[in-house]
Amino acid sequence: MSYPADLTPQQARARRRPLPRHYDENTLPVPVEDHDHDGPSLLKIGAIGLGAAAVTALGVLATRAVVDAIAGDDEDRPHPRSRDHLAPRYANLDDRARQDMRSRARSLYDEHDEHAAEIRARAEREARARARQRKERELRRRHARENGRGFLSQLTDSAGKLATNITALVATANSAVDGFHQIAGRAEGMMRDFDHTADRLREFLGERRSPPRPARTAQTNPSSGHPRGTPPDLSPDDLPHSKADLTRDRAHRL
């Protein structure tokens, strides 16, 4: 038995079943044949691409031709100028004038560079000064934050210290006054003791004094003008008026 794959197209066509009468043989589907359809398709695509490239090249050439016709011929086109050409006024100068011009240009450039350097240096100094001020402000703020003490707290501390010092000063003054009062109270007793001691010494010396000598001729004291051996005349102002004055006089003599 033969299979459909082993038959040729003619054998397959001869073995097919009969068709009805109302079917047309030309309208039947074409049987599948053993051939490659990729070959003709690639050729067609390549031909179409070549044709498109040719058309594009021809269009570009035609466009250039039209543009050249509108712009004019090659003689009317602008030619690039020579780079070695000098300025008209500079070309007419001699070598010395050109050298002077170059010197002036160099001096101007040097002045410009010096001015620019000065501006940059001033800007750097100002920037450093601003940075230093900013750093100082930050340090002050940090110090204030770390201490946690403002103007009011410092004022309170100063007032407390002042009050403490004033209290100590008042206490010292009171102690000094009390000491002075004690010394003054004792001074009166001391003066009384001195007075009593002076009286005792005078009595003791008076008892042991030798008998009086015979009177001599009164002689005048050259320093006071009074007779020697007699007390001088005292005015009422020189005499003691009270017991305190007498005590002071005795203490002075002692």
Automatic annotation (TrEMBL):
Biased composition (Basic and acidic residues): 76-94, 120-139, 238-254
Chain spans, region Disordered: 1-35, 73-94, 120-145, 205-254
Superkingdom to which the source organism belongs: Bacteria
Full protein name: Uncharacterized protein
